[in-house]
Design goal:
13 helices; membrane
Length: 361
Amino acid sequence: MPNIVVGCVVAIVSSALQSTGLTLQRKAHIIESFQDTNTARTNAQILWRVGVLLFVASNLVGSGIQLVSLPLLILCPLQAVGLVFNSLFASILLGESLTSVSLLGTGLVVLGAGVVAGFGALPEPDRSLDELIKQLTRSSFLLWFLFSLALAAVLALAAVRRKSHESKGVCYGILCGILSAHSLLMAKSAVQLLLHAAHKGFKDILRIQFLFIVALFALFAVLQLYFVNNGLKYASTSILYPLVFCVFNLVSMVNALLYYEQVDTLKGYKVFAVVLGTVMLLAGVFCLSGRLDTGPFQAEERVPLIQNIGTSEYTSLHNIHPGVVNPDVPASRLTRMRSYRNHKRRALSREESQILHELGS
């Protein structure tokens, strides 16, 4: 139990540091985009480097400790804590509004993660490579594993053949969730074997079976990145992120119960509590990911970008004529494009205006 408490604390702290790093990188990009001075660019580069360092260091150290100390059933839901910190730091550092929906999502994620951590804390004993191979080849887990991979293959084929963007996005989202869960399982197995080798000798990690587990982890990790990038082409983050997270959690829970033979360990009320906590988590993720689809501009503040073919320059067609409601009428397209090009900059969002105001003060 002390290891689980330490793992939960590390998960929360590392999520906070990762979110801080990502937010600092975003702030650096905003500063660099709208400040042309050498001083501003230098400050932006320093800010970006600090953000990258925070993100990479907290990711490497935090993930390693979590994989060692946390059961799979707790490890997966805790990933949602990062969304809470993303929302919080975007409000503090970028000036984004913290809405009532964001606050509701924060409460649901915190409460749901607490319930899952409290009732899903099941011990995962140290196992040798032979014992893990035995777990992998058990009929119940093997059937589930092969079924999920077959489903992933069908989804990949369906995503290619579908013409609807929404259908493609959903297929890629489910596919990414399945592969993410299996990637995490292989990573945890590899870390457990390394930990076992540190105490009992390194002969296990020199065997071909260990290399096979590592290869599966690498394959699933690369494929999930590829498919999530494809998914982002066809679905908004407010749809894709909750979908991936939902599938990831469900598949990971089944993996944990079958791979570690924990089906009989969870009693009736614990099963109910874990399911309830997971539902609360997913609801919170849906609330928090709604803000992910809100880019730096509000819908009423922006119109599509048009590419200037002659200069390969993207120009924001924000209406700079206050008396003209529709920029297509009455001004000619050529006159408008010239005036927009001379305008040089697009209209700033609230967060960008606030950052520039801080720089100028």
